User: Which sequence fits this backbone?
């Protein structure tokens, strides 16, 4: 009994060394993980908000997207501080004459590919300010617009729905 | 409200400027229309005067020469109506952009400039800040505003009452109830309209909900700018609860277009009173806990105490309204005095502190939240029945109102044409007198504390730019 134990200790186990994992199996599993990760994590858009003449009502509801109830970042959507970091410009307001240049420069500073989302009734057609000579009106009169989210202001839920739809189409 | 209106000559205009200079009266607003300048003053007993000055050759004596708070109002009046204030200390354009703009010089050793905006880093309205700094210390801040100027004065001229009210509700979206209320009250004053009691109370209910939502948002945002994110998240939740209740009770999260000339658009939803009572219970449970966190977190208070101090003398001279004034010893609250219904029959206090720093402006908000909660209790308990709105007389007339928004007193002046349309309307945001004070409060603070100071003021860009 003792000799057997001693022999086993000195001799080491009979177990084979671990083989290399099967490359084909690894590739298959990695592809599956990659698909799942992309689905869960891989869709992301960085958003730069530009108030181009809003009454600040739209800003309040855009702000709410960041609160714990709507939690925008769980969808891979986040607000960034510079247009140079952005994929999307979220533009509000009836584009005032005084904001036109700043809006155009912000667009020019945003790298391609980029999307413009016009938020609120003012950004869609000037809203209640449409007739004003101090306003240009629709954002589409100044920039190519990819998506309109109407409302005065649109609720955070309406904003989320619009942004998620955009996310679906650009991935 | 006790007020009077008269047409004056240049001498009486200058005499009014002297009364402003010597502090006998405070400036309510200064505005124009083609060929006529208007000046509104308020005295110690809260009696309001409106002076109309016909301007031959579009010229008038400058009030700003005697009283600095009128500077930007005169510049705006010149841009909008071509009325030149002669002798003004600052003749640069204000709302009219386009030409080159000369910022005020700052002389001294080792100064550098930091231009910020109009497009800012956060989700904020646009405006330009020109900092001149010595190392980290701000020696001068100069604001340049007007980027969101939408021409509201011109749109108001000739607008039917209903459209005009919608415009008023979009001067500054965060104060949509207060603006619609101020405009409607001015219009009702001009047309001598009596609003049904139930509407008066529902309006106050909405106004206090708006105040709560904004104060919650502001307190959280000030803490966030001191890198204390948990308060931002918690107060964001409180704000969201108020907005959802407003949506359930009145059909719009911000209660836009819910106040209409003559009354309110719709009644409180059937389960609204119950919904609001449970909201009040929830807020009373959570709010004191968060106030405790604010008060007991030394690293947070370290950022807010002693930062961005506004002197009582400046607050008084600029007739600073809202938490900006009340944190610097100026006890003005339009709900209390001149006062308007239903507040004249309700019990509430107007908190005032004297420190004038960021912390003081936070504390005023905290105390005002408590007052608003108490007001909502009373409003819900004693809500009268009856009609929701009455038709407005279409007579021609002049009317005005001062309504306390969350940010301060919103002045509305209106002249009606007699055919159900507005002839002229002027809406003055409290920010007109708060923005210049921010320039003063930041002096000597470090650049990194500007967001904190700015958020504690939370001036409106849109309300100011019109």
Assistant:
């Amino acid at each position: 009994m003792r000799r057997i134990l001693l022999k086993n200790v000195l001799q080491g186990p009979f177990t084979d060394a671990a083989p290399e994992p099967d490359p084909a199996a690894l590739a298959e599993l990695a592809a599956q993980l990659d698909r799942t990760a992309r689905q869960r994590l891989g869709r992301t858009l960085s958003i730069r908000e530009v108030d181009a003449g809003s009454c600040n009502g739209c800003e309040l509801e855009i702000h709410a997207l960041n609160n714990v109830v709507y939690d925008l970042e769980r969808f891979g959507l986040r607000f960034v501080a510079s247009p140079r970091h952005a994929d999307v410009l979220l533009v509000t307001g009836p584009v005032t004459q005084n904001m036109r240049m700043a809006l155009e420069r912000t667009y020019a500073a945003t790298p391609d590919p980029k999307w413009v989302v016009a938020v609120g009734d003012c950004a869609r057609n000037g809203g209640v300010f449409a007739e004003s000579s101090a306003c240009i009106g629709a954002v589409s009169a100044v920039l190519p617009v990819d998506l309109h989210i109407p409302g005065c202001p649109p609720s955070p839920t309406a904003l989320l729905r619009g942004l998620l739809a955009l996310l679906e189409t650009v991935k | 409200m006790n007020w009077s209106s008269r047409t004056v000559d240049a001498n009486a205009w200058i005499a009014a400027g002297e009364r402003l200079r010597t502090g006998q009266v405070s400036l309510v607003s200064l505005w124009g229309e083609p060929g006529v300048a208007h000046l509104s003053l308020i005295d110690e007993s809260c009696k309001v005067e409106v002076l109309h000055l016909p301007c031959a050759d579009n010229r008038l004596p400058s009030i700003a020469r005697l009283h600095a708070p009128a500077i930007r109002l005169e510049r705006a009046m010149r841009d909008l109506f071509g009325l030149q204030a002669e002798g003004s200390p600052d003749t640069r354009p204000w709302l009219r952009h386009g030409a080159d703009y000369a910022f005020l010089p700052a002389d001294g050793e080792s100064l550098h400039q930091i231009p910020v905006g109009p497009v800012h880093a956060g989700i904020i309205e646009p405006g330009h800040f020109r900092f001149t700094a010595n190392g980290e210390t701000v020696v001068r801040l100069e604001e340049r505003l007007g980027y969101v100027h939408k021409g509201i004065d011109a749109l108001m001229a000739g607008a039917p009452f209903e459209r005009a009210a919608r415009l008023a509700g979009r001067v500054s979206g965060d104060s949509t109830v207060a603006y619609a209320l101020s405009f409607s009250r001015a219009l009702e004053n001009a047309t001598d309209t009596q609003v049904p009691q139930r509407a008066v109370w529902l309006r106050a209910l909405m106004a206090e909900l708006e105040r709560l939502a904004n104060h919650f948002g502001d307190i959280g945002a000030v803490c966030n700018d001191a890198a204390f994110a948990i308060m931002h998240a918690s107060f964001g939740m409180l704000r969201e609860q108020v907005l959802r209740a407003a949506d359930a009770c009145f059909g719009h999260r911000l209660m836009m277009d819910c106040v209409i000339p003559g009354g309110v658009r719709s009644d409180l939803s059937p389960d609204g009173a119950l919904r609001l009572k449970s909201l009040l219970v929830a807020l009373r449970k959570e709010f004191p806990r968060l106030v405790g966190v604010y008060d007991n977190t030394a690293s947070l208070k370290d950022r807010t105490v002693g930062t961005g101090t506004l002197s009582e003398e400046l607050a008084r001279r600029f007739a600073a309204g809202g938490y900006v004034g009340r944190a610097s010893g100026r006890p003005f609250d339009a709900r209390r005095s001149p006062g308007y219904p239903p507040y004249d029959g309700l019990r509430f206090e107007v908190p005032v502190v004297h420190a004038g720093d960021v912390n003081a402006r936070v504390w005023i908000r905290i105390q005002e939240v408590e007052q608003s909660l108490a007001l909502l209790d009373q409003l819900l308990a004693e809500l009268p029945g009856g009609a929701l709105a009455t038709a407005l007389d279409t007579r021609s007339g002049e009317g005005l109102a001062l309504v306390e928004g969350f940010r301060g007193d919103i002045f509305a002046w209106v002249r009606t044409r007699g055919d159900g349309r507005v002839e002229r309307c002027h809406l003055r945001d409290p920010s007109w007198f708060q923005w210049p004070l921010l320039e003063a409060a930041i002096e000597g603070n470090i650049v990194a504390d500007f967001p904190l100071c700015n958020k504690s003021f939370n001036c409106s860009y849109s309300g100011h730019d019109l």
Notes: The first helix of chain A runs from residue 2 to 11. The radius of gyration of chain A is 27 Å. The longest strand of chain A covers residues 45-51.
